Structure formats: structure tokens, C-alpha cells
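Entry for the shared binder. Reason: the reviewer on the internal report wants the predicted structure included alongside the sequence.
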Amino acid sequence: ARKIYEWYEAKKEDHREHLGASLIGHACDRYLWLTFRWAASPDFGGRLLRLFDTGKREEARIHEELRGIGVELHTEEGGSQITCRDDTGHFGGSIDGIGLGFPEGPKTWAVLEIKTFNASNFAKLKAGGVETEKPQHYAQMQAYMGLLKLDRTMYIAVNKDTDDLHTEWVHFSKTTFRDLNDRAERTIKRTTPADRLSDDPAHWQCKMCNMYKLCHQGQQPERNCRTCCHATPVADGKWNCELHIKGLTAAEQRVGCDGHLLIPALMPGAEAIDGGVNSITYRDTTTGNTFTDGPTLKVRRRTG
């Protein structure tokens, strides 16, 4: 079992290039920005990664079952999962499918969204509905519908313990989509992170967050192009480097370069007090010492 878990951990996925519709309903604006800027990678263990894979495998079964009851279902475009993006190219996602012939509305094309739950969460979902019990899923579907210009989603939830199914016919909300799209636009345009959801490290939502160590424990952010002062998101989902005056491929963004200059707001335990073209001087908020960050420097500290 340990070896299997290690195998999953060894093949973790890279950072997502876009701001995902599956995240846009998250409670924290800071989390969205840190994720979009690749500030830290989720620290999922092998067991949890295997659980995620179980959810993905369930999709193929639901696809087969829907076709079996007469739904005209499209799950791929050009051999890849169907995607949607906003006008900037930076916000969107990949959908589980688009179908026609669902019993709830047989003449209406609809987005398909599939999720899996344990028995406890499944019971809550069935009793309260997706908008109340899983607002992030609801936001995800609203984003998909708005970007694809469709007005229905078939939401299918699977109870992993009993194989029970729960389905909801979700309608498009123009107001909700507008708010979500505005939130995505603000996140993409921000050059600094938003405030924390809570300054209390014991806050329950913070403690469950992938960015907890970064926000509350002073973890160093990852050094790649998206955490660098010189990188800027531009049209068509692309990024430019203002230092090297060039566009950046996704591969280049992940590796970064020797000219990396960390966005000051991401420097843990310090405040910026001075800066040049490619260096920033900080004061340590605990010791009062100063240090300089720059392309050829190793964050050197000296007495202020």
C-alpha cells in the first residue's frame, strides 16, 4: 500500500495554467490569487490522490450510463476534454460533458457535472441541495454555463459507500455568473494578494486550506515566474516577462530564471523598505535586521 501511495505522489500534476472554475467559489480571495500565482503546491498524500483518481474513474461509468438511457453526450473535443475560457483566456475549466436528452429537459442542451461523496456528505447534499451544501460546486457550474452560454446543468452525485445517485437540474443565474466573473477578473489583475479570510491561525477554514502554511506559518513561496515581480498576465491566457521583454511558455513559467525577484507581499516575516530595478531590501519584522533579495543574492541578512 505504501508503494502504491508513493507512486501517486511521484506523479503529482503540475500547477494549473488558468484560474479554475472549480475554485472560483472558494471562500477566500487570497487563496484564489495564491493558487493562480503558483505560490504553493497542494500537499496531498498518496491515499488522497488515489481517492481523487477514484472520482475521475466514476466519470466514465456515468458517461456510459447516460448514453445507455438515451442521452446524446459529448465528452471530448479534438481528443481532449471539453474546455471553456473567459475573454482573457485566464479563467475557465474542463467540463465532464455536454448532453441533450436528459429526462428533466429532453430538448435542452446542458452541462454535465459529476461528483462523488461519502455517505455522510451525500445525505447532507440530498437534504439541502447543491447550492446550499456545496456552494463551490454550484459556483463551478454557474461559471461553466456562463462561459459556454448554456442555461442548464445536470449535476450527478454518487454515494461511494452505497452507489446511490442524486441528481439536480441546476438553472443558470446571470447575476451569480456576473459576480463570479468579476471575482475572477479581480484575481487575475491583482499584483498583490488579497487579505486573509481570517488572521486567526485556528480558524477552521484556514486550517483546512492548502495555503495554510504560506499564510499562517511563514512558509517560503515557490520561486517561479508567477511569484516574480517581472511577470504579468496578458491577453489570450499568456504571460509576459518585463525583465527579459518576452512571452513566457508554461514550461518557462514553472522553471523561472536567475532574474527572479519575489513579489514583496509574499516575503514571509518582512516588510519592503527600499528597492531597485532588480532588488528589494526588507526589514525583518521580528529582529529588525535588513536583508536584500535579488537575482544573484541568497537573501542575505545583516544588522540594521
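Summary line for the report: Residues 298-304 have pLDDT under 50 and may be disordered.
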